[in-house]
TrEMBL record:
UniProt entry keywords in alphabetical sequence: Signal
Name of this chain's protein: YbbR-like domain-containing protein
Stretches the record annotates as Disordered: 317-349
UniProt superkingdom: Bacteria
Length: 451
């Protein structure tokens, strides 16, 4: 052993072997560390709604079939993946600069992405239709929903601005155009002219929407609105017989007048509409929906149906009350004074149809037009002690619409009845009046009355 250690060549060989062992050990550790580091820093991210750019001859060609966005999956070192996701500094595109006319499959590509990233596009390919680009002008038709005007009014011919729009698309698509429509979805139930915007849509003969560019995409539509027809009161006529022990005590409609549409010569002859109410087999209070008949010669009525509240009373109850009353009257002659007093205290109702509505308190700077009731008249029913009600005449009463708080535009106000004693109740039908208030330009169309 001493001889080996004293030999310088032996020492050199031993040192070389130790160095080789140490080198191998260190290198193995480094490889393991590198492998671990590389594995732990890789990442994958999915990015949705990535825009797609299309490169083509925009002057002469029209392209369809390329999706607006795609989904991109990025794989690679975590730091690079996260940076690309945050900045989205890459571009997905379809290169159609040299495309020929017709339908073809095109592969989507990506540029400006790091070389260390693996990029997957979904969908990877798309079917694209390349056509000759054509631009033509088309007239626009307007479609109005039924709810744009109120009952008793009709829409005139719409005024469109602009009247024509430019439509750009593939030549074969342009040739399929059958309808260019601007649909006005406005539920305002207007009673006067109004203006609104409508989006233009393009359809083929089967009403399939076409993939084209429209300029401008919206048009301005002005719709004249005019009143039509004549407002006439309704009259209920009882028909049929209820159950044997039932009497009809009252029938009350939810509307006191309807609008009749027709020629002036026909409307002049219509004073009221009689509506038959079938009470056959009615057993208790109920509400019936009945059809409003169209008068002879008229075109239509609005509304077409009304609701009628029917109140009932049992005949047996009425008979018992009458019998009791007679027995009380014959019990003692001394009670005649009491009977007279009870008769005086009996409450009754009295109706005044077609009372004129008067406005009150309108500022001098405004004009008013009464919209409903259309004929400016309402029905009034008063209830109170017989001795008081019997003395009340229509000349004593006034139906007032207080416009002191009105402003320009549509205005609705509850109706009030003046001229009644404090102990008399009243019902006005309809209960309110609707006005159009405008800046003063002409004389008032609604009669006024000092209150």
């Amino acid at each position: 052993m001493d001889r080996i250690l004293n030999n310088k060549w032996s020492i050199r060989i031993i040192a070389l072997l130790l160095a080789a062992i140490l080198f191998t050990s260190v290198n193995a550790n480094n490889n393991n560390a590198t492998t671990f580091s590389t594995t732990s820093s890789s990442d994958t991210e999915v990015i949705e709604n990535v825009p797609v750019k299309v490169y083509y001859d925009k002057t002469n060609l029209y392209i369809s079939g390329v999706p607006e966005t795609v989904t991109v999956t990025l794989s690679g070192p975590r730091s690079i993946v996260q940076s690309a996701k945050a900045q989205q500094d890459f571009t997905v595109y379809a290169d159609l600069k040299n495309a020929s006319i017709g339908t073809q499959e095109v592969k989507l590509k990506v540029k400006d992405a790091s070389d260390r990233l693996k990029v997957k596009i979904n969908p990877a390919t798309v079917n694209v239709n390349v056509q000759e680009k054509v631009t033509k002008k088309f007239s626009v038709d307007v479609e109005l929903s039924k709810s744009v005007v109120a009952d008793g009014y009709q829409a005139g011919t719409p005024i469109i601005d602009p009247k024509k729009v430019s439509i750009t698309g593939a030549k074969d698509t342009i040739e399929q155009i059958a309808y260019v429509k601007a649909t006005l979805e406005n539920d305002g139930k207007h009673k006067s002219e109004f203006t609104d915007k409508a989006t233009v849509s393009v359809f083929d003969s089967n009403l399939n929407k076409l993939d084209v560019d429209v300029s401008p995409q919206e048009v301005e539509v002005t719709v004249p609105v005019e009143k039509v027809g004549k407002s006439v009161p309704i009259k209920l006529k009882q028909e049929g017989t209820p159950e044997s022990d039932i009497e009809i005590s009252s029938m009350t409609p939810d509307k006191v007048e309807v609008v009749v549409v027709g020629d002036d010569t026909v409307l002049d002859k219509i004073k009221e509409i009689e509506i038959p109410i079938d009470v056959t087999k009615i057993k208790a209070d109920t509400v019936k929906e009945v059809t409003v008949p169209v008068p002879t010669g008229a075109k239509s009525v609005q509304p077409t149906t009304i609701e009628v509240k029917i109140k009932t009373v049992k005949k047996s109850e009425a008979t018992n009350k009458t019998t009791t009353s007679k027995e009380e009257n014959t019990t003692s002659p001394d009670e005649n004074t009491t009977d007279d007093s009870e008769e005086k205290d009996t409450k009754i109702s009295k109706s005044f149809p077609n009372m004129q509505v008067y406005m009150s308190g309108l500022k001098n700077t405004f004009d008013s037009q009464m919209v409903t009731p259309a004929n400016g008249k309402v029905s009034v029913t008063i209830t109170g002690e017989k001795k008081i009600v019997d003395d009340i005449a229509v000349k004593d009463l006034s139906v007032i619409a207080n416009l002191s708080k009105s402003k320009a535009g549509d205005y609705s106000v509850p109706l009030e009845l003046t001229g009644l004693p404090d102990n008399v109740a009243y019902v006005i039908n309809p209960t309110k009046a609707d006005f159009i208030i405008t800046e003063k330009e002409a004389q008032n169309t609604v009669p006024s009355k000092n209150t």
